[in-house]
Each structure stands twice: as structure tokens, then as C-alpha cells.
Amino acid sequence: MFPIIMVPRRRPVEHNRAKMNVVSVMAHQDDELMCLGTMLKMRDRGDALHFICLTDGGLGIGGRPDTRRDEASAIRDREMRGLCDRLGAPYECLGERDAFLYDTADVRLRLVNAMRAVRPDVAFTHFSPDFNADHMAVNGLVRQCAMLLGLATLRTEASPCASPAVFMIEPSGGFEFDATHYVDVTAYAEQKAALAACHASQHELFRVWHGYGLGEWVTRCSVRRGEEVGVPHAEAFRPMLARKLVKAEQLLP
What we know:
Layout: E1 21-26, H1 36-44, E2 48-55, H2 69-87, E3 91-96, H3 105-118, E4 122-125, H4 133-148, E5 165-169, E6 181-184, H5 189-196, H6 200-210, H7 214-229, E7 234-239
Parallel strand pairs: 1-2, 1-4, 2-3, 4-5
Antiparallel strand pairs: 5-7, 6-7
Helix pairs in contact: 3-4, 5-7
């Protein structure tokens, strides 16, 4: 079991640390919200943010079931690009079919290429088990692809690079997820909720499911994790325990 790492709310600026590339690798547009406060905090210390989604999100307009898949995919893409534009961050979508994501040779190669293009030092991805099979598929893909990044005999358009440290976000509801690392995101809670509003289609879906919108849902999650460690808002993580994917240095802010 890894120790719980607590970080002071106001940490001194680390003037001599090297800038890192930080990437969110998720199944769907809006999954990044469970680590977005931490990513914002990393950006403010000088790190560069990147976002990768593997599916097109075409089944994600649950509040409007008559929406065609291509229309839904276009809406989800526009929403995610709007969020990334506000952050000045690159975004790539691999465009796999929502709810039918599988670990195939083609998907692996395209994810290796997308991650090599980022050259990540830290990656955030899904935890497994999860309620959503796409999320679990991404967990397995990231585990394999992160370790393949430096394999020169695996040729992609982007050149090989070192494997990143990988941290897993909590699944919806937190089932079977025992956090080992917490980040105080109190100073970023309002900004995170405002960015969640970019996913307008998901507000409709969450109102159908929960009776309140996506922004309130992510805020409730950060309040619950904050209560566990004595701060108003926190995000919780576990490292992906695999050779090359665990680093000796402290990387989270």
C-alpha cells in the first residue's frame, strides 16, 4: 500500500523544476473532469496539458435519445474542443465507437502514436474495475501502450519516448477504489465547475440520471474526497502499479 501523500494548500513555486507534459487519456469527452483540478494546478506550476479521448462519445446524449450517433459525436467533439481551447491545450480523439471500444492492434498503434506525439511525463487514465466497459478497456490500453512508447521496433509516425508515470482517477461512485494520493484542488473548484459547463449535453444527461447537472456532480465528488483529508475540495488517485509506470519522484502538485 502506498502512503497517502498530502500537499500543503499553498506550495512555494518550484523555480528550478523542469516543465512536464501532462496528458489525460480517457474513454469519453467529460471523463477528464475527475483529474481536471489537478491538471489545472499542474498547468499553473508550468506544466503543459494535453487531452486524448478514444471514443467519439456518440451514445452520450442520453437526454435526447433520438439524436443520431453522428450528430451526438459532433456535439461531444465540439464541447471537448471548446474546453481544450479555453485551456490552450491540444486535443486528439481516436474516434472509436462509443460503448464498443476494444483492445485491438489498430487501436494500440494509434494510441501509442498519440501518446508519443505528446511525450508525456505524467498520464491520467481510468481505474479498473469501473461501471463502464469502455473505461476498463482504456485502462488496459494505457497500461500496455505506456510501456510500448519506448520500443523502437514498434514504428509509428511519432518517435519513441520514455514511459510516463500513470495515475488512475476514481470511478463513478468510487466503487473498489482506495485512494493513495490526494491533491488539494480547493483553489480550482470554481474554475473546474465552469469548465464542466463546456459539456452542456452532459448536464442534460446528469439531470436525467441524478436530478442535478454535471458541474454539481463533479463538485460533490471533490467535496467528498476533500472531507477524507481535511480540505474543502480534493481529487483522489492511485498509481498504476507496473514496471516503468511508477516513478521515484513526487510528481503530483
